[in-house]
Amino acid sequence: MPKRLILVAGNIGSGKTSLTERIGERLGWQTAYESVVDNPYLPDFYADMKSWSFHLQVFFLGHRAQQHLDMLDDPRSAIIDRSIYEDAYIFARALHMMGNINERDYQTYRQVFDMVVRNLPPPSLLIYLKAPVKVLMQRIHVRGREIESSISSEYLSLLESLYEDWIRNFDLCPVLTLSTDDLDFVHETRHLDQVVDRINDKLAGKEEIKF
Question: Residues 100-139, buried b or exposed e (16+ Cβ, 10 A)?
């Protein structure tokens, strides 16, 4: 099987990390995750978003570009939890709309982002995970991460609208959309089997069967 680079995208709480872990284990693929523990800007960002949003997004841009390149250099197929494209089209855009990144900084960020991604080889497949905002809020509450305690349904709804706009215009590679509100690939083996089959079919260029 040829080497593949798969990106997993989706709103907070949609199941990206869980799916990345399970697919990596099942198929023996290299996995990569979002930088949280070793991110030097996150504490400052959550303490003062307006002052640190631009710095955080620049950090993520460099981190994810390096991650993308590292996974391409590895001879194994790879699956990455969250894509570099989401940083610009979802999170930086949302921070700009909320007034946490001013126009000058936002345009500077987008200029650098456009230059970076122009030189990145495209992925083989983008997996887009989606679930109703109510379900996302329940999952965020259950996992109880302190840094997510301030996330509101209004913020998730804003992100959801940006995701839908981005996905409609995304054309770098095929997109596999999965609704995860009634899909439990962590505890239900048959659900994971279905997801793996859909990934393989999409990579093979077969017509999708919805279920």
Answer: bbeeebbeebeebbeebbeebeebbbbbbbbbebebbbeb
Q: What is the pTM of this model?
A: 0.92
Name the active-site residue from 73, 74, 81, 201: 81
Angle at the Cα of 188 from the Cα atoms of 167 and 31, rounded to 5 degrees: 55
Distance CA(37)–CA(101), nearest Å, equals: 23
pLDDT at 7 over 80: yes
Beta strands 125-130 and 5-10 are: parallel
Alpha helices in 74-178 (DSSP H): 84-86, 93-97, 103-118, 133-143, 153-169
Q: Give CA 123 to chain center in angstroms.
A: 13
Second-level CATH architecture of 5-203:
3-Layer(aba) Sandwich (3.40)
Instruction: Give the pLDDT score at 1.
Output: 64
Q: For residue 81, indicate whether it is catalytic.
A: yes
Q: Give the pLDDT of residue 124.
A: 95
CA distances from 43 to 60, 158, 175, 208 (A): 14, 23, 34, 42
Least reliable range by pLDDT among 34-48, 71-85, 121-135: 34-48
Please indicate whether residue 8 or residue 46 has the higher confidence score (pLDDT): 8
- What's the length of the chain? 211
Amino acid residing at 83: S
